[in-house]
Amino acid sequence: MTNLSLRFAARSEIGKVRRNNEDAGYAATDLLVVADGMGGHEAGELASAATVAAVVAAASNSVGADEVLNQLAEAVITSGEYIADVVSGDRDLAGMGTTMTVVALREDRIAMAHVGDSRAYVYRDGALQQMTKDHTFVQTLVDSGEITLEQAAVHPRRNLMMRAIDGIHAVEVDLSVRETREGDRYLLCSDGLCGVIDANAISECLSQEDLTQAVTLLIDAAMAAGAPDNITVVVADVVNDSLEVDAVLIGSAADSVNQSRLPAVDFPEEGEASVQIIDRVLLEARKSWLVPVLSTIGVIALGFVVTIWWLANQWFVGVYEKTSVVAIFQGVPAGGMYRLVEISDIDAASLPEFERDQVYQTFESGDFENAEAAVKRLKLSADLCVLTPSTPGCPELVP
Q1: Are 42 and 252 in contact, with CB atoms under 8 Å apart?
Q2: Mean pLDDT, range 319-331, rounded to an integer
């Protein structure tokens, strides 16, 4: 009998646009999980973190592939209950939810559970195969033949979810069992990866022999494509070996603040090897000649810190050049001393002439809340032009 295990590498990044990480993930020698939270006044991180914890707890018993499917289905119910409890304590969090994609290895088979648009792929013999189907509105259009996959990738409603774990609605989970073999490589990811780079790019990154390098290349590719969403990547090789490797939590599930906000959730333990390595490096640095040098650099850097603090308190509304939509920026437009914070769905060309000139020239907003309010006002102006195109200053509609 084979003794298959998963050798893995995992990483989660906030991306270039989002203000917090609502993705969560987990990797162990027999279990891989990715969840992508959404909605509810930035409480999506709680939904994804709770779901990852529920899945790990449910799949912790060593059972066969068929039995673990029932456990994963139960985990969806449990995570929904967690979410419902959080919302009942704070109605402002209503609307939070999460996707879930799970691969559990049992002997020579894998059990899979899937809800939403996070994905699982298998890379076998140099060929990439998507194992999950997105539960999105555009996927229903693809299935019915109304649009192509290429059109779905740029469809304005491509993020509209048809299934998610939200603690309110009963959700149908895609459950399946497949055979696996030594040499298979699995990728679980949030749509922050698969939504911005195509299958060819994913396949090329996965062709790298080293797992960590493959994960790095995938993250870098998403960042190079603009990284408009959080990016979570778990890559694992099936090996014929009995591995003893600490499990890893990533993203929102690893955030101690999120864990403290979910007191009823039992989060899995993970290894502390990486922390120990960092501590050892810092200890050696303190004993070396680097200390006085770093101290001098620290004094020089103080002025930069003050400048950065000032920039962090400057906000403006402008146009995101890549897609010509209204966006919120932190910093000042002069000299490029700013960062993109949030992209809206307002096409700058759809605004009345006065507002359009304003956003192209940029205007200060004082703080993020004022910037959000300004974007809402611009949205109303754009909508008014759609409803009453004859309004003075509105752009002409293209037939």
Answers
A1: no
A2: 89
State CA 116 to chain mean position distance.
Answer: 13
Distance of CA 139 to the CA centre of its chain: 19
Question: CA-CA distances (angstroms) from residue 219 to 232, 263, 304?
Answer: 8, 32, 29
Top-confidence residue, 221 or 269: 221
Q: What is the pTM of this model?
A: 0.69
3-state secondary structure of 314: coil
Both tokens assigned to 179: 């055979």
Query: Mean pLDDT throughout 288-301?
Result: 56
Which amino acid is residue 202, in one-letter code? I
Q: Are 111 and 65 in contact (CB under 8 A)?
A: yes
Residue type, 312: A
Task: Identify whether the C-beta of residue 24 lies closer than 8 Å to the C-beta of residue 252.
Answer: yes
Q: Tokens 């600490």 appear where?
A: 246
- What residue ranges do the domains of the chain occupy? 4-271, 279-311, 315-387
Per CATH, the homologous superfamily of domain 4-271 is: PPM-type phosphatase domain (3.60.40.10)
Q: Which two tokens stand for residue 269?
A: 């333990």
